[in-house]
Write a structure and sequence with these properties.
- The complex is a heterodimer.
- Chain A has 5 helices and 5 strands.
- By secondary structure, chain A is of the alpha+beta class.
- In chain A, strand 1, helix 2 and strand 2 form a beta-alpha-beta unit.
- Chain B has one domain.
- Helices cover 38% and strands 15% of the residues of chain B.
- Chain B has 2 helices and 2 strands.
- The chains are: A alpha+beta, B alpha+beta.
């Protein structure tokens, strides 16, 4: 049975009609260590089937060590939301349920547009930073 | 970061209310804020990390 209900899938297809450039979703799971992570894998694979510009790639957190290191995946379940050629550094950890599902959809659309929505002034200031900065936002599904 | 699945992180960053944002390892705030505030936090974190002399 599909994790994404038919009516939700129809809504998502409408949302993904706004996609500009292709987006790759890399999902990391590991059935033995974290059975819950398999659900995220299935969810992302289903998302990948909703629009031709959206592709899903599944990786095993233990076996696919090269990809884990390349994308700097720290824990599972994890989803990396990647542009066709650019990695904006956006990672989502945990179950994308409740409001977090909307956050995932928004992140996909932002990456596809290649546009953060930040002002020119902010982008210039960020470009002048002396070193990379890690930003983590903690949330709950409700 | 959906924190209910990662109690170790909730503890490490003392997440008691959400959304909680941690910039770098030291700058933290709860809730949403204007873009200028977030930028200030990011700049602070970028500078702060360089003080390890």
């Amino acid at each position: 049975m599909a994790l994404i209900a038919e009516d939700v899938a129809a809504q998502l297809k409408d949302e993904f009609a706004k996609l500009v450039n292709p987006v790759r979703l890399a999902v990391f799971s590991q059935a033995l260590a974290d059975p819950e992570s398999e659900q995220v894998k299935r969810l992302v694979e289903e998302l990948g089937g909703l629009d031709p510009r959206l592709t899903a790639q599944s990786y095993n957190f233990v076996l696919d060590i090269e990809k884990v290191e390349q994308l700097r995946i720290a824990r599972i379940p994890a989803i990396a939301i990647l542009g066709a050629e650019k990695d904006y550094g956006i990672r989502m950890y945990g179950l994308p349920s409740g409001y977090e599902f909307g956050t995932l959809v928004d992140a996909i659309l932002d990456v596809s547009r290649g546009e953060s929505g930040l002002s020119e002034e902010t982008r210039q200031a960020l470009g002048a930073l002396a070193r990379p900065v890690h930003i983590q936002v903690f949330s709950t599904p409700t | 970061m959906e924190v209910t699945g990662f109690p170790d992180l909730a503890q490490r960053y003392r997440v008691q209310a959400v959304p909680k944002t941690v910039v770098g390892e030291t700058v933290q705030f709860v809730g949403a804020g204007p873009e200028a505030m977030l930028l200030k936090h990011v700049q602070q974190a970028a500078e702060g990390a360089g003080l390890a002399v």
